[in-house]
Design a protein that fits this description.
The protein is mainly alpha-helical. It has helices at residues 17-28, 32-39, 43-51, 58-68, 72-97, 107-112, 122-133, 138-145, 163-178, 187-199, 206-218, 258-274, 290-304, 310-314, 320-330, 334-343; strands spanning 222-226, 237-243, 246-251, 281-282.
Length: 362
Amino acid sequence: MSEAPTMSFSPDWVSPPGDTIADLLDERSWTQVEFAIRLGTSRKFVNQLLSGEASINEATALRLERVLGSTTRFWLNREADYRAALAKRREIETLRNEVPWLDEVPVAAMRRMGWIGPQRDKVETVSECLRFFGVGSVEAWRGWASGLKLTAYRMSDRTGRNFGAIAAWLRHGELQAERIDCAPYSADTFRSRLLELRTLTLETDPGVFVPRLRSLCAGAGVAAVLAPAPKGCPASGATRWLSPQKALLMLSLRYKTNDQLWFSLFHEAGHILRHGKKKMFLELNHEEGRAEEAEADRFAANLLIPPKHHRELFSLGPNERKVVAFAETIGIAPGIVVGRLQHEGLVPYTHLNGLKVRYTWE
């Protein structure tokens, strides 16, 4: 991934166009009074022009060209550069006051994962983080991020949560999704492609199934993004609508096993298919959205192991041979069957884990 551009805050000095005018007056040995007469303005305006208090507009630039030489474009550019330098200097002071905000976002993790550049100056880091989030100020960031508080979550309540880390992970998903070309969303196409995705549970190599997963989802209008979550963002998945024709389905591989990965995928798919286009779902157990979360859980569970197989599922017990045979019969990975048995309390969480496939982030 290429490094994000850095922002330079030098030089510390700002030279107004009046400095250039004053040098030319000295060369000609003109007083301000004589210059005002030649320019056709008041001495007060000339004094303001030299100090930078008065700006150079098109009419003034034309007069400066006639009186002092150079071009109208030169004087307008000189003015624009000066005003931009003033704005940047004011921005530096504003950003310097916002440095404490960096404690709210996972800067080190964002650097490590290549989401922002490697700059170490704190003021530059504030600027780079704002650029990453696509906002103009920390105040604007708080306004943008406040929408996350309305989100329905599916995250572990036992794990510490950091609001800035959650916002960073979601923003990274947005940026990655923007780079994925998708067909216009079709619920029928997405539903049919979930059946194809189910067969991918038998593939153990992410290098094989991840590209296929992304392609199948993109063809139905869903941008699938797999990205590690920084510390403080214990999310397993998230969904949101980027437009009426494009949905984001994001997975973190939080638990690093195939049963968790595929269940999370189909859980998020359930949100996309059943819960409209106005809500974002970033998984956490709390009252808001509980019915929707339960429905998405049922959707995922029944897609992976259809209800007609439940009686046989519940009779398997901690028998590895039976589990493998059952998984082969219904066409899914054995580790997913183990995860379901453990979730239902039919098998201890310490049993049959050898049938699960584990993944690591490169």
